[in-house]
Amino acid sequence: MLETVDQLMKLQPIVMKQLQMIFEKGRIGHAYIFEGEKGTGKKEVAKFFIKLLLCLNPSKNVPCETCRNCKRVESGNHPNVLHIEPDGQFIKVEQIRDLISTMAKTSFEEGRKIYVLHHADKMNIAASNTLLKFLEEPDGQVTAILLTEQYQSILPTIRSRCQHIKFSSIPKEFLIQQLVEHGLTFSMASTVSQVTNSLEKGLELAQDEQFALARKTVLKLVEAVRKNVNEALLIIYDEWIPNLKERNEFELSLDLLLLAYRDIVAIKANPDSACTYPDMIDRWKEFALSSTYEQLSNQMHAILEARQNVGRNMNRTLLMEQLMLKLQEGYSFV
C-alpha cells in the first residue's frame, strides 16, 4: 500500500538510509533479518531493496523503476527472486529444501539471487537447521531477507549469521495521514491510530460497524457520567452489554474509554494537544476545566482496574455498574 520511495523514507528513514549506504559502499551481506511490528513497511522496504540490488540503472541509491528488472520485481515475476510463506502454521523443512534445490538450478539469470522468508519466526526446528547450513555455505551471489515480527523466536544461530535491521513503529502523524488519504475522516483516523500501528488493520477497523458503534457508545458514556450515573447505567444496560458480547470487543471498548479520559488530561495540560477524539475537543476542554488532575487520575485508574477484571471473568454487568459509580464519584463535588 506504500508505493513511493518518498513514502518509505517518511515511514522508515533510518532503515532506508541504512540500506542505501550498504548498496552505495558495495557491502551487500548474504543475509538480513528485517524485524518490525505489523504495518511498519517490512515487505515494501524489502521490495525496494531487492529492486535496488537488481536494478540495471540505479541513480543516487534509488532503483529506476523503469528497467526490465525493476518491472519484474514489481510484478513478482523476476526469476532470481523467490518468496517463501508459511505452509499452514509453519515454514516446513520441505519448503527450505525446495528453496535450496531451486536456487541451485541453472534456470536463474546471471547475477544476484534473492530469497525472502515471510514470517521467518515460523520456521520449525528442522527448517531452521536446514536453512542454517545454507546460510553458512551460500552458492555464489545469494542474499536472504528474513521478515519477522518476533526476532527472539528465530534460532540464535540464524540470528548470528544475519544483519539485523530493526524497523521503528510508524509515526502516528504518518499513519493518520495515510488513513485520511484512504478516505477516513481525521477524527476516525486519529482514533484508529491509537488502537493499531498498521495501515491495513486501521482501514479494516474503520470499516467495522462494531468498532464505530463502540466508539460512539464510549463518547456517549463519557458525557452521561458527568450528568447522572443513572443515565450512564442506562447506556450500559441498553447499548454496552448487549452490543459488546465478545471479550476482545469489551476490552477494546474499555481501551477507547481510557483514551477519552487521557485526551481530557492532555487537553488540561496543553489545550493544543493531539487527541484520540478530535471531534470532541470542545467538550474535552469544558471537561478539563471542571475536573482536577486527581479526579481524572482516579477515573483512569478505575478504568484500568475494570480492564484487568475482564480477564478474571468477573460478571461484566456488575463490573460496569461499579465502574460507572467510580467514574461519577468525583463529580458530586465539582
Task: Please give the structural blueprint.
Elements: H1 5-11, H2 13-24, E1 31-35, H3 42-54, H4 68-75, E2 81-84, H5 93-104, E3 113-117, H6 125-136, E4 142-148, H7 156-159, E5 163-166, H8 172-181, H9 186-195, H10 199-206, H11 209-227, H12 229-243, H13 247-269, H14 281-289, H15 293-310, H16 316-329
Parallel strand pairs: 1-4, 1-5, 2-3, 3-4
Q: Which of globular, elongated, flat, extended, rod-shaped describes the shape?
A: elongated
Distance between the termini: 49 Å
How can the largest sheet be summarized? 5 strands, parallel
* Order of strands in the sheet with most strands: 2-3-4-1-5
CATH architectural arrangement of the largest domain: 3-Layer(aba) Sandwich
Strand content: 5-15%
DSSP summary, beta strand count: 5
Assigned CATH class of the largest domain: Alpha Beta
Would you tell me which CATH topology of the largest domain applies? Rossmann fold
What is the helix fraction of residues, given as a range? 55-70%
Domains, number: 2
Which residue ranges are poorly predicted, with pLDDT under 50 across at least 5 consecutive positions? none
The class by helix and strand makeup works out as alpha/beta
Query: For the record, what is the CATH homologous superfamily label of the largest domain?
Result: P-loop containing nucleotide triphosphate hydrolases
Overall pLDDT metric: 91
List the helices and strands in order.
Answer: HHEHHEHEHEHEHHHHHHHHH
- Cα-atom radius of gyration: 25 Å
Count, helices: 16
